[in-house]
Amino acid sequence: MNNESLHIYGPILSPFVKTVILLCEEKSLNYTVGLTINGEDVDFKSEQHLKLHPAGKVPILFHNDFVLCETVAICRYLDQAYPQPSMQPEDIYERALHDQWCSILAGEFNLPIIKNYLLEFAFPKGENGQVKMDKIKEAEPLLLNVLSKLNKELQTGKTLGQNRLTIADTLIIPILAYIHGIPHGSEQLKRFEYLQDYIAKMLNRPSCMKLLK
């Protein structure tokens, strides 16, 4: 396949767009990214965007004449289209557990953290553009609950943080990098030893250094 025709529609600041970019970087694929389609600007949630994804989400992958949306589906497709290096376990049971965690990370963990925590830092709604710390405090139990569950999973060593990068890793590390880069978030991460080690390890990968630092 000709990887020159890979285009990722979506803003590069999106953690889900970053997930697909990380996968492409790990596989040394050539790609373009941005809010354009066939070289023309396409506004987020515009009529043209909604024709491609009924909920107006990103990313959307354009590979030659093939169009695909939803982050996990895109990552699985690219991993099959460009199998080296493989980013999914070969064993059927290990892959099933990996897929399980991909679903949990993409939906149950990432979306609530983005909506209830990260967006307030990215687009503050307080007076004079200040972060509403009462909203952050309100979201803190949710954040700590997710971080605690991730820390526990890393402690088991079954899915995340293996010797090779997996799709599951690419789903969570952009979110963790954002949290790590926020003083409040960095302070919360100090409670979780395995998470701190995992973030440090991931951010030292060339692909993550290029995109996330």
Low-confidence blocks of residues: none
- Proportion of residues in helical segments: 55-70%
**If helices are DSSP runs of H or I spanning 4 or more residues, what is the number of helices?**
9
Strand content: 5-15%
Q: CATH first level of the largest domain: which class? A: Mainly Alpha
Element order: H for helix, E for strand: EHEEEHEEHHHHHHH
- If strands are numbered along the chain, what order do they take across the biggest sheet? 2-1-5-6
Radius of gyration: 17 Å
**Oligomeric form:** single chain
Q: Write down the overall mean pLDDT.
A: 94
Annotated CATH architecture of the largest domain: Up-down Bundle
Q: What is the total number of structural domains? A: 2
List keywords for this structure.
alpha+beta; Glutaredoxin; 2 domains; four-stranded mixed beta sheet; two-stranded antiparallel sheet; Glutathione_S-Trfase_N
Structural summary, described in words:
The longest helix is centred in the middle third of the chain and has 31 residues, at 92-122. The strands form two sheets. This protein has a four-stranded mixed beta sheet, covered by helices on one side. The model has no long low-confidence stretch (mean pLDDT 94). Helix 1 (15-26) crosses helix 6, helix 1 packs antiparallel against helix 9 and helix 4 packs parallel to helix 6. It is 58% helix and 9% strand. The protein folds into two domains: 6-81, Glutaredoxin (3-Layer(aba) Sandwich), CATH 3.40.30; 92-210, Glutathione S-transferase Yfyf (Class Pi), Chain A, domain 2. It has helices at 15-26, 47-52, 71-81, 92-122, 133-156, 167-180, 183-189, 193-203, 206-212, and strands at residues 6-9, 32-34, 36-37, 40-41, 60-63, 66-69. It is α+β, with helices and mostly antiparallel strands and 213 residues long. It contains nine helices and six strands; from the N terminus they run βαβββαββααααααα.
